[in-house]
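Researcher: Go.
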Amino acid sequence: MSENNRLHYRHASIKRAQAFRKQMTEAEAKLWSRLRGKQIGYYFRRETPIGRYIVDFLCWKQRLVVEVDGSQHYTEKGKEYDRRRYHFLRQQGFRVLRFSSSEVLQNTDGVLNTILEYLQNPLLSPYEGD
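Model: Structure:
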């Protein structure tokens, strides 16, 4: 694996990521059941450490992170954490797509279509406010 393709992470993040894989939310599990095994033509990893953060789903080839946000992401503290995290991931060259848990549960096909659109168009970049 070349230097540019290495994911840099803190070793403590490995144990946290492993724990997260064992306790996925209902929305994460539903989305993972549709992303795993290259079902949409792209390989995804789940609960992957990048730096000090762990992302829900990662397509390394297209440098696309997909996040499923539960209620904790809508608090002021959660929003601030997500802003720092987003800026870090962007600095590392990743694009970040965010979906609410309810959106994933109620409109899984629509979420998958959006993900596929971003995978097929690597120049598309979702806007995230400062």
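Model: The longest helix spans residues 76-91.
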